[in-house]
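User: hey, got a sec? need MFS transporter folded
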Amino acid sequence: METSPRLSIDTLIDTQTIGGYRFGIFGLAVVLAMLDGIDNVTLGLAAPALSAELGIARSELASVFTATLVGLTIGAFVLGYAGDRWGRRPCTIACVALFGTFTLAVPFARDLNHLIVFRALAGIGIGGLLPSICALVAEFAPSRHRQTSVLVVSGGIAAGAMLGGFLSAALEPAFGWRALFFVAGGATLLALIATCVALPESARFLLARRGDEVRVATLMRRIAPQVALPQDARFTMADQAGRVSLGRLFGEGLAGTTVLLWVSYATILAVMYLLFQWLPTLARDFGFTQQQAVFAATVFNLGGMLGSALLGPMAAHWGTYRVATVNFVLIAPFVFAIAHSAGNPTLLLGGAFAAGWTVMGGLGLVNALAAESYPTAIRATGIGWASGVGRLGSAFSPSLIGLLLAGGWTAKDVLELPIAPAFVIAFAVIAIGKMSRRRLPAADAAVAAV
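Assistant: Yep! Here you go:
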């Protein structure tokens, strides 16, 4: 007869204050996300000087950007699944090693083929990182702070993109374009050392996939040092264990949620790529100076960073689905303001900031919804595949905008395009919320029957 006390890790994680140990985990995750964001923008920032020095036509750089996108998609699909199969920690380490090493390799490229290979391999690491760190952070965070934690990590990408712009402005004029990659890649490899030393495995993963109660007990003692855990304690959690399978994304009542999350990712990423890549060019078409156009892009990233940080507490207070729905509806008036900002710098910058908040912060909300929607056993797979499908679905957004402009569309016409998608995402979030509420009674009944 079993006499060992059984303790719920859900209760321990939720009832203890977030001490220095978990703050350290969350801080490291944010740093990794920032490095991800820096790496995302390095090639675009260095492209003019790089293409001139290496004798690569700027039109040929499109293949390098495409290779990066292919890598991002492969990383999201493959390494998201691997995170559920082998663990969040080893996959995070592999992703950081990949994009750090091959970012550092770019300054040694001698031709177009080198760049394509280096950026594709770096892209795999970049694409695979977010599913693992979002799953890890969600599983270490108390349920009341889960949305905030995932959103802050997602906001690290926007902060990194903005920091990349500052680094480029400081380093490139004095040291050349290679310095940006040396600094970004070198900082990432330093972070890799910290990750290997300090990043733990998720306690929920250890229990769900491996039944490793010894390591779970060690983690619980770090999370709750003031709680006297018995040496022979056994642990339980509400999440059911199970095999890692893509099919599970469409079973257990998750099919509709999975499809709507894929639609949400594809739509929000398409809107984000449109504004991220075309806003400076379209602002110039409105008659703004180059400096004003670049500043609008910086303000867009600033809005994304602050939105990602502040939407989490708002979601925790008013509810994730309610806040997400309102946030996505608000995209429409803010991009409308940008579209009608010709001759009005205040309207341009105000609209760019608010659009960054709702679009890039909105991507963080979709990450949080995905993290909440899937059980531990398939959480990284669910986030990874939603992200991968989203990247595929939005991959042609920049090229489509180029074709529309070549076909006679004005900057105002293009900037009004996100209005309809904003309502599509809002309706998708409402539907996901309804499906989630229907699943909860069934899940509670299943747990009670155990």
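Quick note: The chain has two domains: 6-210, 246-449. Let me know if you need anything else on MFS transporter.
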